[in-house]
Amino acid sequence: MFSLVRLISEVILRSSMNDSTSAEKWWKDSMVLIGIFLPSSIWLVMYLSLSLKIAWISFPCGVLVGFFLWLIALGYENPRMAKATFIGVIINLILASISAYFAFF
Question: How far apart are CA 88 and CA 8, in angstroms?
Fold first, then answer.
């Protein structure tokens, strides 16, 4: 089963490498968009559902989700997704810091 999944991912990787026009546009890569927006969307959901003062707790959640997204990026050998996940966690850190400022100061 694992070899079948690996074969399918290699075929998809080769076809995406041959299409150089889509490889240059990062905003068309769904994995990159997930890596950027998923950690920060955790903060947004907490902000909308709970409050600004409680949304600081989204940082540990965003780091944990970002870590597993980063592992997925390493597994698929997708450095662009790994960088985007790191950027998404940094955005989550900034938003959670703003929430922590309002909660504790």
Answer: 28
